[in-house]
Amino acid sequence: MFHWLEKRPFLFSVGVFLVIAFAGLIEIVPDFAQASRPVTGKKPYTVLQIAGRQVYIKDSCNACHSQLIRPFKSETDRYGPYSVSGEYAYDRPFLWGSKRTGPDLHRVGEYRTTDWHENHMWEPTSVVPGSIMPSYKHMFHQNADLETAFAEALTVKKVFNVPYDKPGMPKVGNSKSDFEAAKKEALEEAKKITADMKNQDVKDAVNRGEIPEIVALIAYMNSLH
Q1: How many domains does the chain have?
Q2: Which of 22, 67, 89, 121 is least surrounded, with the fewest CB atoms within 10 Å of its CB?
Q3: Residue 193's pLDDT is what?
Q4: What predicted TM-score, i.e. pTM, was given to this entire model?
């Protein structure tokens, strides 16, 4: 039998490929599936955090900042423990990024504060001298799109079985009629953030029941750790 295969290099090559591919699937797929499960303590984004994530994408923050710490000492010394796949279990889409004009932000919530983000987004050079990042003052006046954020949370709950409304997890509800309850919860979360902010216009907006984009963005940034 083997002599027969040796005389037919094409079929021999196909056979070797099939054996290696099958063995690879047996070895790799189970580990990959296990590694892709949410890490311990990982929670889905709240509606306010999703709204901030949408602001992050809309203003192309991912064009200059990555969210992927590679397993190299130079990276872990600067940014913290390297990223693992289970940390992205609830990210849709992934925001790994492919360029770093600015630093990686995957663990920015561990070492930057609400007050720092407020000053940085208003005037970057006030906290990072020489920064080439533009200011994002419009975020202090434009309101976050909570309805779209709520719709996204509701969609991923139903389509991808993201564990909203489970014990210890953020609440979303089961239909559009639950939006007002979700908005109320987002406002309570926003008030905790603005308690550490100085901009009075932002504070007044939240007290009126509005949520400026800057508050949603900071909620998202604080969740990155």
Answers
A1: 2
A2: 22
A3: 97
A4: 0.85
